[in-house]
């Protein structure tokens, strides 16, 4: 009987500084804390990275604690029984894909039965800490066709003309971050549509989004905080026109692909997004994003410094990862 060599698991805490302080809603941040996982077997090492989100009760410590409880041997099929959906499982799942690709001498897209990935046009997210800097950022990224910023209040909505003046032809996505009411959406949507807003993310708190099934959507509505994994998909039908799939919520590439395909079968469009982090966290999402309506994978553009062999950005286009990075 063949003896399976145990996996060697290493966990690394990473802190990435932003190019400058970044404001979403009322929260201003200067850095992001990520967890990198490496899995080694037979002289080959696979890597994955995740970003814990306090919104869901996660922290770097909680992620590390989950991963350290893993047994010495497991694979992608057994992983869901060992870790719940979330960032810990994401980092490990993506490391397993990377490790298997290196062991077999192929790319992850081939292992997954996907078409060869192509460059994708990504949304760029703007910080709203200062109107002058907002205009500077909009001019800086004016070659992007779609820009996004947090609009948690009427004051934030008044920033639209600033973006529009700096980038006249851009389409705008507003991330409401669970801060609106139904009346806010009904009242504001017709006006926002005239101002070039093409999508509104998560206008209502996730526990109140049933009301979205009872109103018209002059601007499509995208689920973010309401969408986690396959288990949350059935309740979203009829409430949302699109879902934002993030690997840190689904628990990795494996279930992001499954969620994307299931959503498309139901006629729900998809956006592939991510927490702000390095190219290692973005790389698997580039594969999941190939058949999505919107791609929101601009995280490395917002960092002071990305990791070596990072994703290549050509204007608004993000290219698939090289093997030196992942996959």
Automatic annotation (TrEMBL):
Q: Could you tell me the keywords of this UniProt record?
A: Isomerase, Magnesium, Metal-binding
The enzyme's main class, written as a single word, is isomerase
| Names of the cofactor(s) | Mg(2+)
Q: Which GO terms describe its molecular function?
A: metal ion binding; racemase and epimerase activity, acting on amino acids and derivatives
| The keyword Endoplasmic reticulum is assigned to this record | no
Which domain of life, per UniProt? Bacteria
**List of residues binding Mg(2+):** 175, 201, 224
Enumerate the spans annotated as Mandelate racemase/muconate lactonizing enzyme C-terminal domain.
131-222
EC number(s) per UniProt? 5.1.1.-
**How are cofactors bound according to the entry's free-text note?**
Binds 1 Mg(2+) ion per subunit.
Give the coiled coil ranges: none
Decide whether keyword tRNA processing is in the record.
no
- Any one Pfam family here would be MR_MLE_C
Tell me which family the UniProt entry assigns to this protein: Belongs to the mandelate racemase/muconate lactonizing enzyme family.
| Protein name as catalogued | Dipeptide epimerase
Which organism is this entry from?
Paracoccus zhejiangensis
Which classification does the entry list for the species?
Bacteria, Pseudomonadati, Pseudomonadota, Alphaproteobacteria, Rhodobacterales
